[in-house]
Amino acid sequence: MSSKFIKVATPQVGEEEIQAVVEAIKSGRYASGPRVEAFEEAFSKYVGTSYGVGVSTGTAALHIALEAFGIGKGDEVIVPPLTFFATVSAVLYLGAIPVFADIDEDNLCLSAESCRKVVTDKTKAIIPVHFAGAAARMDPIMELASEKGLIVIEDCAQAHGTMYNGRVVGSIGHAGAFSLFATKHITTGEGGIITTNDEEIAKICKMLRSHGMSDRDTHVRLAYNNRLNEIGAAMGLVQLTKLDDLNARRIANSEYILDEARKLPWANVPVAEGDMVHTYFWCPIMVKPDSGRTVEELKAHLDASGIGYRHRYVNPLYKQPVLKTLGLDYSDVFLPNAEKTVGQVLGLPNHPSLPEEDRERVVEVLKAF
């Protein structure tokens, strides 16, 4: 077997992005300007919203969106226990309280049924995360939000181009928050963007990302310096033109590998069916608990075979030690689907530039486990 190491992910950047960045540098305009505005317009059009607000990171997108909707001290925000901690951090930055609801087992996304069980008079918002490129079931989440008067901010950090019932995620809730980190579906190197149909919220987000200024000399809110820059936006404009093609190749690679994996007696593939376009930020696979094998054994097998993988989120987020330092006690929280899932999901190589022979090798290694 080849000794070549197969990477799980790699940035998809070509000469077009390099040339766009060079032109931006030569322009002498580096802070937010016409390229950022063009990227905001193009990205929001792609998602299907009226407005886009470019920011410095995906975490900043969540933080600013929450604050723009008035989320603050003591407010409760429902979040999932399986994702990157930034979803929770954004809530904590504002003095709000994360409230954890369980996930659906098949798509690993926030469960509307579980959300309903934890809504209180203090609940102000829900942040469904479209985990690993799968869409959360947004219809029942939006129905719950409408019934209870809650704000829904979609965390789309892992789901650029994912669709649910014919709509691109980031256009279904009251706002969407995207990350543009190096290994996401598309990248600006580092960055993020907020999408919304609410003109007033978009205006507030633009103030919050830039020192709370209503004009060059007037500061009307205490705010941040979280702007997206022209160099990143130049890169993002090119990347956005490639997104559908990159996603098509990512999907093809993932579905080929996972279709083969489903034939294996030990493998569990957590992908929901229905009217959803999954864009596979991860190519997710789990080991069936009754198979006599473990995820640690699979990791060792992949390591020995030179196959890269993602293995993250090994504990529910409500067990992160930082929460105790903030005086938050989640010791009585036990979410059964999350507890069964954390630490069990591996992401296999699936990036758009994965050669066919590498894809075949990944399958052969899985078969040999």
From TrEMBL:
The record's section on SUPFAM superfamilies has: PLP-dependent transferases (SSF53383)
Q: Which Gene3D superfamilies match?
A: Aspartate Aminotransferase, domain 1, Type I PLP-dependent aspartate aminotransferase-like (Major domain)
EC number(s) given by UniProt: 2.6.1.-
Among its keywords, does the record have Coiled coil? no
Q: Where are the transmembrane segments?
A: none
The yes or no answer to whether the keyword Transferase is present is yes
UniProt entry keywords in alphabetical sequence: Aminotransferase, Pyridoxal phosphate, Transferase
InterPro entries reported in the protein's UniProt record:
DegT/StrS_aminotransferase (IPR000653), PyrdxlP-dep_Trfase (IPR015424), PyrdxlP-dep_Trfase_major (IPR015421), PyrdxlP-dep_Trfase_small (IPR015422)
Origin, by domain of life? Bacteria
UniProt GO molecular function: transaminase activity
Family indicated by similarity: Belongs to the DegT/DnrJ/EryC1 family.
What is this protein called in UniProt? DegT/DnrJ/EryC1/StrS family aminotransferase
Q: Whose protein is this, by species?
A: Pseudodesulfovibrio methanolicus
